[in-house]
Design brief:
It is built from 14 helices and three strands. The chain is mainly alpha-helical.
């Protein structure tokens, strides 16, 4: 068996910093909510979790341990494995997305039928489908080579698969995750050499039509757009989430209120430990602490891009670019939503928000990036010994 290079330790350290910081902020942001026992109405037996302020933190740590196992496993899987089995990975992802739409198999939470219950755990299928789409598209584009620039034979087949993933996730309905999928796929296709004019013609008009139809036919989506345009119109109603987020960010100021000293997490800010955890970060750590956190985030993404650029394997490069895009786009959508820059879509902050499926997928994705870095470091070693 041929030896492989060592993984990129800087990327590994940055990932550990993000996960550790996320667990710390989950402890701070969820403690009051968990202590009240309100979440027992969401299906958690009172005798198991009622009044335990560290309930969500313990679950997040459990998911982080599972994610570590997944990351180490993915890090040690050669990219040839993913490349050979790309069709099975893509087909399985589509099959799971179809299954979750069937009543009795898929579980509904927060208005979306996105979950499959396995024993005591609930897994969000659309999170794992993002990785499936990334690996499938990367393999397809890499296999086509120069032919990929051909409109009919090269670009159309990957776009059809992307549209299928997008529609299945949008039907759940989970338009936020569907948008992340579409953006990630777009980055992979552009990195693979697709013509921007072709992509624009084939994606922007239909996507715009779908989004417009969705907004006009779904009351909650329309209310989020109206809240974005005027967040102070209905402060105690549809605008409540965003207004409370503004209060948290404003209170943080330059230096923050101090770790654990957030006032908004005292049941004023809904979903403080999940979708709106960035608001608590801004309130407790202030502008300077938030900037330091974002610098670590940016360093992680840039390091991932650096690894992709150094890889000589087209498939590994494209898969790595897709994973970096997936994490980066999701982070921008989350932060943009809670700061009022874009309408709220309800997606977690990667590595940081409470949520097992999101954390698990981000860590497995990091493991795939680390696997690519091992190939890059092997190239360096071979080059130095030549």
């Amino acid at each position: 068996m041929k030896s492989r290079g060592v993984p990129d330790f800087l990327l590994l350290i940055l990932a550990f910093l993000l996960v550790g910081f996320g667990i710390t902020m989950v402890i701070s942001s969820s403690y009051i909510y968990a202590s009240t026992g309100i979440y027992t109405f969401k299906g958690c037996p009172t005798e198991l979790c009622g009044g335990d302020g560290l309930y969500f933190a313990k679950k997040q740590i459990m998911w982080a341990i599972m994610g570590l196992v997944g990351m180490l496993f993915a890090m040690n899987v050669p990219f040839a494995f993913y490349k050979k089995r790309f069709f099975a990975i893509g087909f399985t992802s589509i099959l799971i997305l179809l299954m979750v739409l069937i009543p009795g198999i898929g579980n509904e939470a927060n208005g979306a039928r996105s979950w499959i219950k396995i024993g005591p755990m609930s897994l969000q299928t659309s999170e794992f489908a993002k990785l499936g789409l990334i690996l499938y598209l990367s393999a397809i584009v890499a296999r086509k080579g120069d032919q990929f620039r051909d409109f009919k034979k090269g670009l159309i087949p990957p776009l059809v698969i992307t549209a299928l993933f997008f529609i299945l996730v949008a039907l759940q309905p989970d338009l936020g995750t569907a948008a992340i999928m579409l953006g990630t796929a777009g980055v992979i296709l552009v990195a693979g050499g697709a013509r921007l004019s072709h992509l624009f013609i084939l994606t922007v008009p239909p996507f715009g039509l779908i989004v417009t139809t969705y907004i006009l036919t779904k009351d909650h989506a329309l209310s989020r757009v109206l809240s974005y345009t005027d967040p102070w119109n209905d402060m105690l109603g549809s605008d409540y989430h965003l207004v409370q987020s503004f209060f948290a960010i404003a209170r943080g100021g330059m230096f923050g209120s101090g770790f654990g000293q957030s006032l908004q997490k005292y049941l004023y800010l809904p979903e403080a430990h999940t979708d709106f955890i960035f608001s608590v970060i801004a309130e407790e750590l202030g502008f300077l602490g938030t900037c330091l956190f974002l610098l670590i985030y940016i360093a992680f993404l840039l390091r991932g891009i650096f690894i992709c650029l150094k890889s000589q394997d087209t498939f590994a490069s494209l898969a790595g670019v897709g994973i970096v895009a997936m994490i980066g786009i999701q982070a921008m959508i989350n932060i943009g939503g809670v700061t009022g820059t874009i309408p709220i879509t309800g997606v977690p902050l990667p590595f940081v928000s409470y949520g097992g499926s999101s954390l698990l997928v981000c860590m497995i994705g990091t493991g795939i990036l680390l696997s690519a870095s091992r190939e890059v470091n092997k190239q360096k070693t071979v080059g130095n010994n030549a």
